[in-house]
Amino acid sequence: MTTIDRVEIGLVNLEPKVLRTDAIQTFEVQETPVVTVYDSDGGVGIGYSYTIGSGGPSVIALLEKTLAPALIGRDPACIGGIWYDLLRRTNATSVGAITSLALAAIDTALWDLSCRRAGQPLWKAAGGARDHVEVYSTEGGWLHLDQGALIEDAVEKKQAGFKGAKLKIGRPGHEDAARLNGVRKAAGDDFQIMTDANQAFSLSEAIRRASILEDHGVAWFEEPLPADRVRAHTALAQSTNVPIAVGESMYSLSQFNEYLANDAASIVQADVARIGGITPWLKVAALAEAYGVAICPHFLMELHVSLVCAVPNAPWLEYIPQLDAITQSEVEIRDGIARPSNAPGLGIDWDHDALRRLSDLALVVDSPV
Predict the structure, then answer these.
(1) Contact yes or no for 5/366 (Cβ under 8 A)
(2) N or C: which end of the chain has fewer CB within 10 A?
(3) According to the model, what pLDDT value does residue 369 have?
(4) What Cα–Cα distance (Å) separates residue 280 from each residue in 25, 30, 71, 108, 261?
(5) Are 264 and 237 in contact (CB under 8 A)?
(6) Has UniProt tagged this entry with the keyword Metal-binding (predicted)?
(7) If you ran DSSP here, which 8-state letter would residue 350 be given?
């Protein structure tokens, strides 16, 4: 039987390509835990997750001390079984961000290894629903940008074939309205505008803001409220015809089920890193499909491009480049359409020299617990 006999762990800190701000935070640095799994037949798989500036060393400690040692001697083909065993091993710290981010780094590495061994790209191995997806951009819609910059970016993206763009909201209502109005007039009614409040509003303020968004025909109202306020999201959804989108701040399948069962959202945005890997992400996608809801994932476009093409209910990929400094090629985007790689594995063309050069540490686990 093929077994896992070595695990390498690194942490790469990446500077964002542009200043990224929203209503509650600034994306300071991308801490990127990278896990490489080696099996006894010479197979290799690379996985990763990320933070936006804090918690990375805690993820690394959980990987080094608890999760990676538990992989030694396991059959790497048993991805689902390994995921559940590791979840049980971290029962006292689940559900939560640190555990999910650590699980995701391992799970994505195992999927990469499995796909490489099978000679298949991830988008086919995980379902193969289609070979392309429409792209919307967030990279030019950050909250600190003035109206002119928002308009310039939206027009530029439309000319490049992008079908939509996301604007961060959270300024005073009249300012947000003016910014939306400017982009709508410049980009036209056929250009989708997504909005994102990053959990900044109370229910009463979210209801008031939704009425403003209705006037501008936005595609969705993302994270209007704190993620743990399910009933408030239901009340908001019942008060507006603007689709409510949630999910980047949720860490388990049961949390998504609670939202869907309570009609609290009509778009889910599961993030592979924050949900704990590809294994649970696919379950969220299937759950959303059962409810007739779209999944439009958050961040991680280099990985999500394959997953949105694997499932039938994922109409959008979010454009925010995150891995340019440690990859040799970018996601293929032409005329606003992204296509996943057909290379075996996750489809990420890692620059191994850059990974070694930029890693702040390199830990190796190669002995049984």
Answers:
(1) yes
(2) N
(3) 45
(4) 27, 23, 18, 11, 18
(5) yes
(6) yes
(7) B
Tokens at residue 250, please?
Answer: 């949720």
Structure tokens at 116: 């490489």
Say if CB 308 and CB 282 are below 8 A apart.
no
Catalytic one of 124, 233, 298, 304? 298
**What ranges make up the beta strands (E) of the chain?**
4-14, 30-39, 44-48, 133-137, 164-168, 192-196, 220-222, 244-246, 267-268, 294-295, 316-319, 332-334, 337-339, 359-365
Q: Please give the Cα distance from 147 to 151 (Å, whole number).
A: 6
* 3-class DSSP state of 325: helix
Contact indicator for 154, 191 with CB cutoff of 8 Å: yes
Handedness of CA 121, 122, 127, 133 (dihedral sign): negative
List, in order, residues 6 or more apart from 324 with CB less than 8 Å away. 17, 330
176-182 long-range contacts (CB < 8 A, ≥24 apart) are: 176/209, 176/212, 177/212, 177/215, 177/216, 178/147, 179/147, 179/150, 180/212, 180/213, 180/216, 180/218, 181/216, 182/147, 182/150, 182/151
Q: How many angstroms separate the CA atoms of 255 and 181, rounded?
A: 34
User: Does a cis peptide bond (omega within 30 degrees of 0) precede residue 95?
Assistant: yes
pLDDT at site 368 = 54
What is the value of pTM for the model shown?
Answer: 0.96
Active site residue 17: no
Contact 22, 142 (CB under 8 A): yes
**Active-site pick, 124, 166, 168, 304:** 168
Which domains, ranges and CATH numbers included, belong to the chain?
A: 4-119+351-365 (3.30.390.10), 123-339 (3.20.20.120)
Q: Report pLDDT digits (tens) over 30-60.
A: 999 999 999 999 999 999 999 999 999 999 9
Is residue 168 among the annotated active site residues? Answer: yes
